[in-house]
Amino acid sequence: MQTDLRGRDLIGDLDFSKEEVETVLDVAWDLKRKRALGEPHAYLRDKVLAMLFFFPSTRTRGSFEAGIDQLGGHAAFIESRTTQISHGDTERELGEIFGRYFDGIAIRHVTWGVGNRYINLVAEASRVPVFNMQCEIYHPFQILADLMTMMEKKGRDLRRKKLVVSWAYASSYLKPISVPQSLILQMTRFGMDVTLVHPPEFGLMPDIVDQAKAQAHKYGSSFEVISDPDGMEAAMKDADVIYAKSWGPLMTTTDPDEGKRIQDQYKHWIMDSKKLAVAKDDVIYMHPLPADRDIEVTSEVLDGPHSVVFDEAENRLHVQKAVMALTMR
Ligand code: CP
Question: Are 274 and 204 in contact (CB under 8 A)?
Answer without folding.
Answer: no
